[in-house]
Design goal:
Blueprint: E1 4-8, H1 12-24, E2 28-32, H2 35-44, E3 49-52, H3 62-73, E4 79-83, H4 88-96, E5 101-104, H5 109-131, H6 138-142, E6 143-146, E7 149-152, E8 157-160, E9 163-165, H7 169-179, H8 188-194, H9 201-218, E10 225-228, E11 232-235
Parallel strand pairs: 1-2, 1-3, 3-4, 4-5
Antiparallel strand pairs: 6-7, 7-8, 8-9, 10-11
Helix pairs in contact: 2-3, 4-9, 7-9
Length: 237
């Protein structure tokens, strides 16, 4: 079955171009021009991925509000921002709200398609890891356990001290990359490769900060993700 994508873009020409490209790639696309239209539809049913502009008609931050709504419905729904706004404040704001990627509209259609495919591959890779019966230890294939942390790759669930944390697909992917080798420093470049996408240092920094904050909400003494100045991050619990 083809993946279902919702596109929220208020410029008709761009909406039509993106829709045509995605449909040519085999996706089922539903497009909306306004925040209100999208809100009503998305409250009824979630797709496999959502692509959002930030400014929607007269609402300059409508996409941010939609992202916030979607994250309250599902932490694991993939969300990509596709916007003309190219600045660090908007990028960090989007990632703090839980977006999986932030792209600007000068990106080529081919590059956009590649970033969408990367997110779906990320989900499929986690799933295939959890169901790979060729692993010598089938329990390890389905989970990553280290100390008080447990990552269930089959259910895409993360537990810290027995409490479930609500992480996005990208956050689970990055966390799993960190804990795969406790104590080893992962550079931002290595984490970008692990996330199967090309982003800047600020994007990785924002994602790691968001992961840390979710642990801190559950455990105020959490300090297992260490920043190694000039090198990257490591899991040291």
């Amino acid at each position: 079955m083809s993946k279902q994508i919702v596109l929220v873009e208020d410029e008709q020409d761009l909406r039509d171009n993106y829709t045509a490209m995605l449909e040519n790639q085999g996706y089922q696309v539903t497009a909306f021009s306004s925040k209100k239209e999208a809100q009503i539809a998305l409250q009824e049913q979630l797709p496999d991925l959502v692509i959002l502009d930030i400014g929607l008609e007269d609402d300059i931050d409508g996409g941010f509000e939609l992202c916030r709504q979607l994250r309250s419905q599902s932490e694991q729904l993939p969300i990509i921002f596709l916007t003309a706004r190219d600045n660090d404040i908007d990028t960090i704001s989007a990632l703090r709200l839980g977006a999986d990627d932030y792209l600007t509209k000068d990106i080529s259609l081919q590059h956009l398609s590649a970033r969408i495919s990367a997110i779906f591959r990320r989900i499929e890779a986690l799933s295939s890891t959890s169901t790979n019966t060729n692993q010598p230890n089938s329990n390890q294939a389905k989970s990553n356990q280290t100390g008080e942390l447990s990552i269930d790759l089959e259910r895409l669930e993360v537990f810290w001290q027995g409490n479930q944390l609500e992480l996005t697909i990208t956050e689970i992917w990055l966390l799993n990359a960190l804990v795969a080798h406790p104590g080893h420093v992962k550079s931002r470049e290595q984490l970008m490769q692990a996330a199967n996408t090309l982003v800047d240092d600020n994007t990785i920094t924002a994602q790691i900060r968001r992961i840390r904050n979710k642990f801190l909400e559950s455990d105020k003494d959490f300090d297992c993700i260490e920043s190694v100045y000039g090198a990257g991050y490591r899991w040291h619990c």
